[in-house]
Amino acid sequence: MSNTPLQLFNSLTRSIETFAPVHPGEARVYSCGPTVYNYQHIGNMRAYVFADTLGRTLQWKGLKLTHVINITDVGHLTSDADEGEDKMEKMAARQGKSAWDIAKFYQEDFEQDLARLNVQPKAHPRATEYVDEMIAWGKKVADKHCYECESGLYFDITTVEDYGRLARAVTEDGESRIDSVAGKRNNADFAIWRRTPAGETRQMEWDSPWGKGAPGWHLECSVMGEKLLGFPFDIHTGGIDHREIHHPNEIAQNQAFCGCGGLSEAANSGARMWMHNNFLVERSGKMSKSSGEFLRLQLLLDKGYHPLAYRMMCLQAHYRSELEFSWDGLGAALTRLKRMVMQAERLADAVAGDPSHQKFVPALEKFDAAMSDDLNTAIALTALEEALAVKKVDAGIKRAVIEQMDSVLGLNLFDLARTDLRIRPKDAQITSEEIEEAIARRKAARVEKDFATSDAIRDELSAKGVELMDGDPLGWEWKL
Ligand SMILES: Nc1ncnc2c1ncn2[C@@H]1O[C@H](COP(=O)(O)OP(=O)(O)OP(=O)(O)O)[C@@H](O)[C@H]1O
Ligand SMILES: [Zn+2]
């Protein structure tokens, strides 16, 4: 546990602030979750590695954490600015399945990816479970803040003070629009309720005072945040794209809901702090699902990379910096993780003791200072390596220090074995058992000083794409 004050960058004020819990001894965090109309790409997963590292840090500071990552299973249109088709219904039509089945399938896939990245269990409320509460919220704010037009109930952004303060850049026509909704008063007004067009039926629709239809995407997060965490809660997170439209709209709704209009009190915006992770990018630009082919965690596995190598890759960058994905970078992150796992393996039999020992003070202080400085995981990783390198100390003390650091970074160092990190690529022509069996035969031949057989086995493996790595300092033994 650490008592150093935690400094975090609050997007709302664009400055570093000291975290002070709303409820003493507790931290309540809401992270915008995925729209489950498709697989998540690894860029999306960067957002959850960041949110999880934040949650772990708050726990390490001694706070009882309540952390929500919602599931958007209705209401997110193909444009964040509330226009176009519902992403769920569009995919359902494309796959010839029900929107409910689509949501279930991709939610499960998402949760599997979270587990693979060692993201701690969180609450995952689904938007469709809160529709009554969304309607109640709409009723409460409708008179003062909304107007109806043909396509539904819209929020008039001029009815709250300082709309778009979070984005700092919202202008009347500053956002990309794909088509404009007839009857909207201001370009940036957004739907609270989307009425099903006359003569159509949606798979996901509910009765409301504004006709049959579905809730707006921004409303969902406001409602689930308020219901599950209460206003104000401590921290709201999301990817940096949400700073421009989704979160300013949530804040406007929250101001209306609190009946306090203004933004002078951080409380009025629903959360005290708003934090945003930067993008994972490819050379060609932001990784995105709309671009057709995209990188999934499963593809990394299929190519032989352990998912935690991707977590390592994320931690090597500051969450507010862009991170460019490359296979070489991922390979380097895997090697780094492997070195750490090997060092942790040496402590496997030790019972964790009291971490206070002179020799670990510099590394622990460095780690604490780095994490407390707006989650500087890149430096924290070097402190972890310094602690791992400390020699001639009691293994139990060392284990306790490493466990503490790993509880924050989530690399799972004590549960991973070296061999877990060597994943056979999906297209490999040979099974791991066959490789191990050939290696055992070769070892036996070498004991007999039968170098001809030993070389023959090496060639036989090489022909199948397996390179033996005699004397490899990482003990890798072979690679494909
Ligand atoms: N390339 C990226 N890097 C980091 N975070 C991202 C990236 N793309 C999206 N995110 C974040 O991932 C979370 C889930 O995003 P969401 O479900 O809205 O999908 P999306 O990837 O933005 O969809 P699409 O690519 O179809 O526009 C959000 O917090 C979003 O800000
Ligand atoms: Zn959201």
Automatic annotation (TrEMBL):
It is found in: Cytoplasm. One of its GO terms (cellular component) is cytosol. It catalyses: tRNA(Cys) + L-cysteine + ATP = L-cysteinyl-tRNA(Cys) + AMP + diphosphate. The keyword Membrane does not apply. It is an enzyme of class 6 (ligase). A motif ('KMSKS' region) lies at residues 286-290. Zn(2+) binds at C32, C221, H246, E250. The lineage of its organism: Bacteria, Pseudomonadati, Pseudomonadota, Alphaproteobacteria, Sphingomonadales. InterPro entries: Cys-tRNA-ligase, Cys-tRNA/MSH_ligase, Rossmann-like_a/b/a_fold, tRNA-synt_1_cat_dom, tRNAsynth_Ia_anticodon-bd. Monomer. Residues 19-330 form the tRNA synthetases class I catalytic domain. A motif ('HIGH' region) lies at residues 34-44. ATP binds at K289. Belongs to the class-I aminoacyl-tRNA synthetase family. Its EC number is 6.1.1.16. Binds 1 zinc ion per subunit. It holds the Pfam family tRNA-synt_1e. One of its GO terms (biological process) is cysteinyl-tRNA aminoacylation. The keyword Metal-binding applies. Coiled coil: none annotated. PANTHER family: CYSTEINE--TRNA LIGASE, CYTOPLASMIC, CYSTEINYL-TRNA SYNTHETASE. This is Cysteine--tRNA ligase. GO terms for molecular function: ATP binding; cysteine-tRNA ligase activity; zinc ion binding. Its cofactor is Zn(2+).
